[in-house]
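In response to the reviewer comment on reproducibility (Comment 2.3), we provide here a single inverse folding case reported in full, input and output, so that an independent group could reproduce the run without further information from us. The structure tokens appear first.
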């Protein structure tokens, strides 16, 4: 389970939130998330593939030149995992950082909690 949890954390960071192409992002969401997934972020709770896709796409549009970079190694414990990350222009210090915490069910992300250390610019 820990290998899959690690994979989900890293792929989510790059293929969902770091992906600018809507078709590739949607394909990743369908592969990585349960249909009834829930995303918990400071603006609110978003449930299901459509809501997650819209949130991730809208967020990406606010800073399309930013890259998401893992900070440290992913950790897994039973059906949960966490990964610290930073976001900012490629090759520069991150403009904000955070931690993703996921709950895994049947090999997919059932819930994602995003803790931000600093607000996006």
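Designed residues, in position order:
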């Amino acid at each position: 389970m820990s290998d899959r949890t690690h994979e989900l954390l890293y792929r989510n960071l790059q293929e969902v939130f770091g992906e600018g192409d809507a078709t590739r992002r949607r394909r990743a969401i369908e592969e990585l998330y349960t249909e009834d997934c829930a995303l918990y972020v400071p603006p609110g709770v978003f449930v299901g593939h459509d809501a997650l896709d819209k949130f991730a796409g809208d967020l990406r549009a606010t800073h399309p030149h930013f890259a998401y970079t893992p900070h440290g190694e992913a950790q897994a414990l039973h059906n949960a995992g966490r990964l610290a990350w930073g976001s900012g222009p490629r090759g520069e210090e991150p403009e904000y950082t955070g931690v993703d915490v996921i709950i895994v069910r049947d090999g997919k992300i059932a819930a994602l909690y995003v803790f931000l250390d600093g607000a996006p610019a």
